[in-house]
């Protein structure tokens, strides 16, 4: 028995040593594990203590606040106060590298300034805590000590026990993805822009085409004004009328030139307007030509048409070009009765308001009809052969199509759809 006591003491000592050894080994293993899975992990990881927040949430609930998220929205100051209930516990090396901190002590100094309470994160984590979820995630911008801004996707793992003392936050740097995304978006914008710029050549031709007519009208009106004033009995009324025509046509020429700006801008110009007013405005501009070609312009416009969303200057150009072609066709064929009818009606199944420009002129042969949308195709001595090309491209850019039906000796109908203004048309 007396021999047993030292044996027992020895045995106890050995067990203690083994136990201590085990403890040390466990601790070392834990350290190694922690080093591998936290400190040295390549993903930025941050441990935060939100237990104060839990108590704060519980206190709010006790005060009768049931929707804490709405409460936060109504009291933005609480977002700032959040830091009072919260503590940064630890950050791994990847966080230090990301933010530019020298070491963990430095991190604790700069964290409150670089990682200010973020409304979106707080709302999401509060909501997740309230709903008993085990994770929450979102996006935010991180500001580093050297002034860089890094977009990250963050994810918080929330303990299912409800103990919020160690909430682990991961951050995934998504700068490269964002840059790639931006490049794709910019490239898409640039491409659309480049496509528009590449039509500048086409556009210059179209401007030359569309400006030629108002300039000719200005010159004719100026001659008329001079003649009315130089008469033995000058007519100031008529001269004034000619001056008015000059002013209108000058405005028209300037509108056409203004189109270049629209083309070169990144976004096309669209306004909400009435097809009725648009047609009437356009036709008012070719009064003098109607007179010259001895043509009657008839309008058949349905009442209460829905609003359309278009580029007004462009659509007026289409109406003008088509009406001029109709008049010129009738003049060439020496018709006895010359009527151009412009009909406007609602075409719900086509998603817009239809405009038709009809004439009772000579119509077109099949050969002509098959070529009218070719650039520089013209059967006229002084025709540029661009009018219809321009019209088609304008209508296409409005999402529609310029269609034509023509029967020799009977006449021609051009039609197109002006798209509804979807916001107004419900
Ligand atoms: N209403 C019409 N009736 C008969 N032929 C037409 C009609 N509209 C167009 N055309 C034919 O289509 C051709 C092409 O028309 P487009 O407007 O593109 O050019 P253009 O009138 O000849 O010249 P410009 O470029 O000066 O307008 C015309 O030359 C003509 O032969
Ligand atoms: Mg023409």
From TrEMBL:
It holds the Pfam family PAS_4. Its EC number is 2.7.13.3. Residues 206-422 form the Histidine kinase domain. InterPro entries: HATPase_C_sf, HATPase_dom, His_kinase_dom, HisK_dim/P_sf, PAS-like_dom_sf, PAS_4, Sig_transdc_His_kin-like_C. It catalyses: ATP + protein L-histidine = ADP + protein N-phospho-L-histidine. The chain crosses the membrane at residues 6-27. Keywords: Membrane, Transmembrane, Transmembrane helix. GO terms for molecular function: phosphorelay sensor kinase activity. This is histidine kinase. The lineage of its organism: Bacteria, Pseudomonadati, Pseudomonadota, Alphaproteobacteria, Rhodospirillales.
